[in-house]
Amino acid sequence: MSATPSGTVGWARRVVGHTLFWPTAALVALLVACAVASPGFLDITVREGALVGQPIDLLRNSVTPLLLALGMCLVIATGGIDLSVGAVMAISLAVSLTYLDGATDPTNPVTVATAVVLGLVLGVAVGAFNGTLVTVLGVQPFIATMILMVAGRGIAMLITKGQITTVTSPPFKALGAGSVLGLPQAVVIGAVVFALVALVVRRTALGVLLEAIGVNRESARLSGVRARSTTWTVYVLAGVLAALAGIIYGAPTMAADANNIGLFFELNAIVVVVLGGTKLDGGRFYLSGLVVGALLLTTIERAVIIFQLPSTTTNLFKAAVLIALCVAASPRARGWLASRRTASSGPRRPEAAATTTQPSSSPSGASTASSSRASSAPPRPSTTTREVGA
Amino acid sequence: MKLRRLDARYLPVAGTLVTLVVLLVVGQARYSTPRQDFISMKLVSNLLIDNSFLLVLAVGMTFVILAGGIDLSVGAVVALVGLTVAQLFIAGWPAPVVVVAGVLVGTACGTIIGVLVQYFDVQPFIASLAVLFLARGAATVLGTRSLPIDDPTFSALASWSIRFGEGRTSWRITASILIALAVLAIAYLVLHHTRFGRTVYGLGAADRGNAVNLMGLRADRTRVWVYVISGTCAGVAGILFALYTKSGYNLTGVGMELDAIAAVVIGGTLLTGGYGYVLGTGAGVLVYGLIQVLNSREGLESWWTRVAIGAVLLAFVVLQRVIAVRRRPAARAVDAKAPPAPVPAA
């Protein structure tokens, strides 16, 4: 692309072209719409040393999807998926609360810490199970994780003996409902965890390695990336983050309802990842997008209530958003868009097309497919259809 | 060496039959009484009555998995069809129209997945996951309580049966059994005796259906059709499930997709596609049903079934991988995304 745009036009184009432009714009628009529909929506007040208001609520509610999406995003970067996160939430909460229930003094901070650690250790175990299936046995990621997506709730029911375990423990409750320095404790935990993961992934080579694995596992392995252990670690991380999300989500009510905690939260996590600009094909991911995506998802949930739509439609909206985003990201839709743009407004940045290009280790079919994909708008060759396990 | 290959080819189905026999022997040993054998026509008839909807689901799923895809939406579609049917009866529609409309709801869901997969290049599990939530969401909009179905025609269909034998050993054939077996028979004919069936196998066999295309078979069209078939089967299964429970409820069928996939995998179809038998799927459904029967006879809580199904699926998936790795050492390198890097032989 020869004509590099400059000046204000170029700046505007860079902003609009940024991955996070549309999600952020949607978030702002939705918040404004909510504020118009419900005056006082954006007000924040201080009550008993803690900030109170709808925006703070939105922040707190965003923590669970953010933590889930954080693990999911890294798994997706390697070209996999983790469908078990919702069930893992249920299991970890069941373990923590069952331990607290059996403890002599559930208010003791040490007991609470042990309960939390137990829940997290369980997340490690579950993640290790998924990771082993995917990396050692080579089972397709969605089948490997679907086993626990469905059987996991059965396991959680075994742990709680089919009951809804409820306990009373103020320190445990504080994990989800308490506040630190005026901010909800959950938000602080979420921010710290997010920062830690972001630091490790983006300040070391790990992120690049994950993307290399996602683009082509075999060529990454041949280039010296320890694809197997890295992928395994990512599933473990996703398991721990899901366990943490379960504890934070369930802490305010302190009730382990194995059948309903985290039901459909896989959807939330995947929607957040896609909203944040990460494509589901793997090989490229944006962590900052997850924050915007999680806030956007939570705001959509809230907006449904504010606009007085039946709350039962929420999942319908989310699924529609997911489908729309998948379609918008598809080569065919991009092709249409590209041909219309090139026809009307001259050259466009090659970025969008370039992201679909995949380095291929083989000189056959795949490379011709990707190069024809990168050109403006050819009818997509059917060879690029990505079928499972093919 | 040749013998060994033969073994590997039939190992999945052999595994199915061994599992079936083991479960039957365990059942016979533990639950037979002097007056009544565990293994009987009554058992078979009950298995089919209780799992007719699952059989139909699994048959549809077989098409998709053979073609190298996956359909995670079927459980949600069953719930959506059940509620659609219930609401239409409440609205006073005649039974035949309601039944057709219910099946078409399933067809529509499958079509969405097929179009997303084929024309918008969405991975099958994401496309079907999106439709899972779409269908579940739509079902929730239609109603969050269990809606009873008390249409006289529908009830008559649900209770229609032919009875054989007398007393304890009597068994029966119901409309659901006939429908489910008919679906299985049609699927068998289509998959093993038509050009379409060969195309389905070809799609899943290798290189994303390229070879099939070069042979002049319509790979793209077929790929959409397998999802349409799976959705339609889910629609039929939704009707059968409504006949079975005589109600519609938005949380039915949670995890039914795992049951269907498990039945297909236990039945010897390779998850990577291109290899399997639809009649094996029928055996897989019987294994699934027997696990449930043994579970309840042992007096265990129902969620043990979930765990057991997960464990059995795990065992069969591992078995498949072992076979695959043995057959093609390069298969180890295959993952869900990238084609195996061909090592040039210099």
Automatic annotation (TrEMBL), chain A:
Superkingdom per UniProt: Bacteria
Molecular function GO labels: transmembrane transporter activity
One family name in Pfam for this protein: BPD_transp_2
Biased composition (Low complexity): 352-390
Coiled-coil region(s): none
GO cellular component: plasma membrane
InterPro entries: ABC_transp_permease (IPR001851)
Keyword Cell membrane: yes
Chief site of localization: membrane
Annotated keywords: Cell membrane, Membrane, Transmembrane, Transmembrane helix
Subcellular location(s) per record: Cell membrane
Start and end residues of each stretch annotated as Disordered: 339-390
TM segment ranges: 20-42, 63-90, 110-129, 141-160, 180-201, 232-252, 258-278, 285-309
Membrane topology: Multi-pass membrane protein
Protein name: ABC transporter permease
Provenance organism: Quadrisphaera setariae
TrEMBL record, chain B:
Keyword Transmembrane assigned: yes
A molecular function GO annotation: transmembrane transporter activity
Subcellular location: Cell membrane
Keyword Membrane: yes
Bilayer topology: Multi-pass membrane protein
Pfam family, one: BPD_transp_2
Assigned keywords, A-Z: Cell membrane, Membrane, Transmembrane, Transmembrane helix
This protein's GO CC annotations: plasma membrane
Membrane-traversing stretches: 53-85, 97-119, 125-148, 169-191, 224-244, 264-291, 303-323
PANTHER family, sorted: ABC TRANSPORTER PERMEASE PROTEIN YPHD-RELATED-RELATED, INNER MEMBRANE ABC TRANSPORTER PERMEASE PROTEIN YJFF
Protein name stated in the entry: Sugar ABC transporter permease YjfF
Organism: Quadrisphaera setariae
